[in-house]
Each structure stands twice: as structure tokens, then as C-alpha cells.
Amino acid sequence: MDTIAAIATGHSPTAIGIVRVSGEGCFAPCDKIFRAANGRPFSDQPSHKMVFGEMLDNQGRVIDRGLSVRFPGPHSYTGEDSAEFHCHGSPVVLRELLSALFAAGARQAKAGEFTQRAFLNGRLDLTQAEAVIDLIDAETSAAARNAAAQLDGGLRRVLEPIQDALLDITARFYAVVDYPDEDIEDVQPEQVAEALSSAEGQLTALLATCQRGKVLKSGVRTAIVGRPNAGKSSLLNALAGYERAIVTDVPGTTRDTVEESVLCGGVLLRLIDTAGIRDTADVVEQKGVERSRKALESADLVLAVVDGSQPFTDEDGEILELAAQQKNWVLVFSKKDLTEGAAGFGIGVNGHSAAPPAAVVALSSVTGEGLDKLESAVSALFPAGDPKEAGSLLTDQRQEEAACRARDAVRRAKEALESGLTPDAVLTDAEEALDALGELTGRTAREEIVSRIFSRFCVGK
Prior knowledge:
Layout: E1 4-7, E2 14-22, H1 27-33, E3 34-36, E4 51-56, E5 62-71, E6 82-89, H2 91-103, E7 107-108, H3 113-120, H4 126-137, H5 141-151, H6 154-178, H7 189-207, H8 210-218, E8 220-225, H9 232-240, E9 258-264, E10 267-273, H10 283-298, E11 301-307, H11 314-323, E12 329-334, E13 359-362, H12 371-381, H13 397-418, H14 423-441, H15 447-454
């Protein structure tokens, strides 16, 4: 492959900046732009050790002084000859160094091309490559741990026994069919049925991790709903830790959705503060109410806020009816600091919601009292799961769809076997399951799927 180069660090000034190079023959251009203090050419420097020297532009002038590292293939990130140059993090210095590499024969790397080469060279499978971008984008420690474990091959280790069992089934079928005169033991239906049942169970268990995986990776889309001036924006500000939304005593201040990401009970919530839901003649406010209803309907979690310092109203009841239609909802009585009767807030609520809330919390967004109860309710709804599962969760729709197709194909193979169909019917479904699993790991993934995955990466990774 040709030589590629890119800035691997950000575009803002930093203490240290890194330029990466990769490709067979990449050490030759590196010789032209780096002058080591020990006097030896870059290509003769020891591998995997930092060497001090000067970075040069395409006319041999010193750009900066810093460190270089030589990574001979296949013992590199990409699996091919690679190098890194660590210098001061001035964007100008980094661009000058990159230009010198281009003049020496390298070209600009595409987004994700370093990791794509690692995949193509067998250094990573597709689940590990996806874990790289998940690790970069991780917003919680749990998400980072899961991505790191998946990068270490956690998901691959779950899939390998399933693939091996299906490969054994297909190989036995082919051996019997292709070599009828050889002394090969016939395929035993009981053994095949047992292997298929085991594969089905393992894939079903894997698919059950999707929800936790998606929560770890993307967070929980959370709508804060209630009538005007119920305390929705104050709750968002309290959870965010700063004044993200405007708060006034005037009902209807929030006329559009306001979004913010926060950690609540160790769970990443994508909060959406909505306009107060009520009947209104104001055209602008009407649009805000419509958006509020849509946000509620698409939310994974609803925080239904009721002003605890005011009598419960029919409008409150109607909002609770809407919230109760969602799978996960929490009833929040706000403004606990304004009343002594917080314990009796629930009076009048019964009969207004079809499904009871997962929790009822009374809190004050001003004093912070009760916020810990809300955190406990959220963490109970979206538990972190067993730490040992880290790395073995399905974290995106592509992985889920591939695993689902594999499980469905295994089920069809099992049904074909139980129905007494010919071996080729069982074989066809077993091979379809293998193809789906191969797509998940990258063994049989189509080029457009691979390209779409790596297009999510930043340049330099």
C-alpha cells in the first residue's frame, strides 16, 4: 500500500502534537524530514523506541525539535511499516511537517484509513475497529471500559465458539456429500440439533445485551415534560450543574426543546427540556407543544414533572396519561423547598395514569434535595449490568441486525432438521448464519459496509 500521513491530534494548539505515517516504504520519506541527534538515518533507528532529533521542511530547514518512533511491520498498529513524530502542538508546525511528508512522497490519509488498514491487514476484526471509535467517543467511564474490552477482542471471543460449531456442522455435511465412498461417519441429527440449540441460545443471550450496549454507547433519550412553570427547566439546570435553560416565573418561557447531556446515577441521559404542554392560542407556543409531544413519544425515559407546591390539576393528569404510555417513566414532584407537604404530593394522582411510574420522587432543584433519589431511580431503570460483560455487548444497530439474522437462520436450520428435510436445507440455513456472523466480525462484510464504518472515524485514526 502507498504511504499515508495525517495529523493524529486536534487542530487547536496543544502541548504536544503527533503526525502519523504508514505504508510499505514509508521510512524513506521519514529519512528526508527527520534528522536524529544520534546521527543515524531514521530508517536505521531502533524499533519502538523514541529518538530525539529535528523535524525538517522540504527545503531542509528546521521546523521543530522533538521525538520520533519507528514501527516496522507487522508489529505496528496498521500491520505495515509505520512511524510517529511527536513535536510541539502548534497547528502551524504540524501542517509544515505534514507538508514536508507530502513533498517526500506521502499522501493525505483519509478518515479512518489507519484503522482500516489495521483491519485489512488482520490486526483487528470489524468489532474491534468499531470499538476504536467507541473508545474515542466514550462519554462515561463505563462506556470507555466496554469499548476497551471490545477492542481487546471481547465480542470476538463470544462469537468464535458459535462460528466454530456452525463450521463443524457445515464441514461434516460437505464431507459426507462430497466423499460418499470414504469412511466418514454420518452426520448424527442429535448432535447437529444440540449444536444448533446451543448456537441459538448463545445468540439469543447476545441479542439481549443490545439495550445495555446502546445505553452505554449512546445514552438514554430523556424527555422532561409537564405543564408550564412546573419546574422542568429548573430540573434540567440542576442535573446539568449550570443554567442551561432560561428559568422565570412566567409560564411558557420555554417554547422550543432544549437539549443537554448529563450523567445521572452513572447513566448518560440525553435530556430534552420541552415546552409546557397545554392548550394555547399562541401560534409559536403551539409549535413548541407539538415538539414536546413528539419528544415524549420518541423518548426512552420520561420525567413527568408536577409542581408540588400547587394543587394537582386536570392538565397534570393528562400529561401523566401521556407519560404512562411510554415504557419507562418517573413521576417527579418539583419545588419541594416551597412546601411542607412533600410527602403527600401523590394525593390526587391515582386514577390519572394507565401504568404506574417506575418511581415517584419529590425534589427541589434549588436546594438539590431529592436529586439523589432521582439518580437511584434512573440507575435502577438502566442498570450497568455485570462488569464481566464488558466488551461482550452489542452496541449498535449494525451488530444487532447481523446477530439477529444469524439467530433467525440458526432457528430455520433447527426447524428444517426437526421437520426431516434433506441435509442441504439445513446446510443452506447454517451457511446463512455463518455469513451473518462473518459480516458482524468483518470476515464476509461487503465493501460498502466497511467503508461506511470507517467513514465515522476522524482523519489520523
